[in-house]
Amino acid sequence: MFIQSDTAKGKILSSTTSYTGHIFKVTSNQVQTPDGLTVQRDLIEHAPAVALLAITDDDQVLVNREYRIGINAEAYALPAGLINAGETPLQAAKRELEEETGYLAQSLTPLCAVRSSEGMTDEVVHLFLASVDRDKHVAKHFDQDEFVTSKFVPLNEVLEAVKNGRIASAQSVSAISYYMAFVR
């Protein structure tokens, strides 16, 4: 079978850090690949994260609107955030949903984990399905440098927004697609 759980790893021969920031650092690495090549590769080492498809019993999906520097505009996406040191992905998912939206997860189910671009970053985002009740919410607790607007949107509108590119974040598209393909 071609797709296996165990794959050969490369050997890092040298690594130099060129930038260290709040959630990622950039390194330049000389690597010996599993097939014997010696190559130079830059890597963005990124903190792990979570993203949640939070949905009500009547198929209303919690969608966030937040400014994102990568597009220099507000983006529509599912609730998401970084995993804090010492936190499990499940704990982070519960915390992020509450902090960003004020809604409490009635249940949390792991879906899968995704990587946005293995060719340049080690970032992994753990995706969860959250069952939420619109009547069960608390105050939001944004990080000091964030402001998020959240709204419940019918699932069919969310699917249309993915189809036409209004929702384009990799983790959002992945969570919604996984849900529709394997859970729904």
TrEMBL record:
InterPro entries: Nudix_hydrolase, NUDIX_hydrolase-like_dom_sf, NUDIX_hydrolase_CS, NUDIX_hydrolase_dom. SUPFAM superfamilies: Nudix (SSF55811). GO terms for molecular function: pyrophosphatase activity. GO terms for cellular component: cytosol. Keywords: Hydrolase. Pfam families: NUDIX. One of its GO terms (biological process) is ribose phosphate metabolic process. Residues 44-175 form the Nudix hydrolase domain. PROSITE patterns: NUDIX (PS51462), NUDIX_BOX (PS00893). Its cofactor is Mg(2+). PANTHER family: NUDIX HYDROLASE DOMAIN-CONTAINING PROTEIN (PTHR11839:SF18), UDP/ADP-SUGAR PYROPHOSPHATASE (PTHR11839). Belongs to the Nudix hydrolase family. This is NUDIX family hydrolase.
